[in-house]
Amino acid sequence: MRIDRAKRAEVLIEALPYIQEYYNKIVVIKYGGNAMLNDELKQQVMSDILLLKLVGVKIVLVHGGGPEINDLLSKVGKVSYKIEGLRVTDAETMDYVQMALAGKVNKSLVNLLETKGGKAMGISGMDGSLIEAVQKSKELGFVGDVTKVNPQPIYDLLEKDYIPVISSIARDKEGNVYNVNADTVAGHIAAAINAECLIFMTDISGIMARPYDSNSLIPVVDLALADKLYKDGVVTGGMIPKMECCVNAVKLGVKKVFILDGRVPHSILLETLTDEGSGTMFIK
Predict the structure, then answer these.
(1) How large is the average pLDDT for residues 41-59?
(2) What pLDDT, on a 0 to 100 scale, did the predictor assign at position 34?
(3) CATH number of 24-71+95-121+153-168+179-282
(4) Which segments within 74-114 are labelled E, that is strand?
């Protein structure tokens, strides 16, 4: 659908105060899910990220890669299973996780950004001692919890005008490598670098007052409401860990945390640069 020149001008004017708000600020985007699997959406997301960077927003991209890990494990005949949404990871599985996340997924995103004219640098949580972790539990194997974030590598890349593209693997003080939930990594990184906001791109529209009813979207959730939603059983299943990551990020000091539907074209721009918005915002 084409819009006339006057309407295009209105769209640009509407974006102006938001560009001013985010200018020279850091925005952390956690990217994964269907938006990463659909090539057309992936192209749009990368274009949106570059547009934000060109208007002065400092972007840090954190990614997961569950489907790619599943695909690689399937190809090598490795059986994988999860406990409460977390992949049980033995030493051999961890090798494949590292191949998929720090290799294929990370470098493909860097390649897309560079092909579109951006400057991107792919790193993992191990590089520059960016993320330190400890084993989450013996039952899960090489699955880690974040204990420390060293923000300096990110600051160095941003200063050199790069978009850091970060895969969610980390190591402990002994050099053991861990698979860490990408949502958790994004929250800790956003807090450590004093990000203006953190955006989770997901497979749903946001938090619903009535589960599966898209007309019941809750646009803003503070900590008190989040606690009530837990207690009332409104948030269930796979949304529980997602919401926990949002709440924890706010508690760690991130000013605003968004859950956006990554399946919606240009959802990042709709949330950051328009009055409309497109998901749920978490605040303290």
Answers:
(1) 93
(2) 60
(3) 3.40.1160.10
(4) 82-83, 86-87
CB-based contact 29:51 (threshold 8 Å):
no
- 8 A C-beta contact, residue 1 and residue 259: no
Which one-letter DSSP state was computed for residue 277? -
Q: Phi first, then psi: what are they for 260, rounded to 5°?
A: -120, 150
pLDDT of residue 161: 96
Residue 168 contacts residue 62 (beta carbons within 8 Å): yes
For the chain, state the CA radius of gyration. 19
- The single-letter DSSP state of residue 64 is -
Token pair 């640098």 is found at 121
9 Cβ neighbours under 8 A, 6+ residues apart: none
Sequence spans of domains, the chain: 24-71+95-121+153-168+179-282
Read off the tokens for 14. 């509407």
26-30-33 Cα angle (round to 5): 160
In whole angstroms, give the CA distance from residue 86 to residue 171.
17
* Burial of 207 from C-beta contacts in 10 A (0-12 / 13-18 / 19+): buried
The confidence score (pLDDT) of residue 264 equals 84
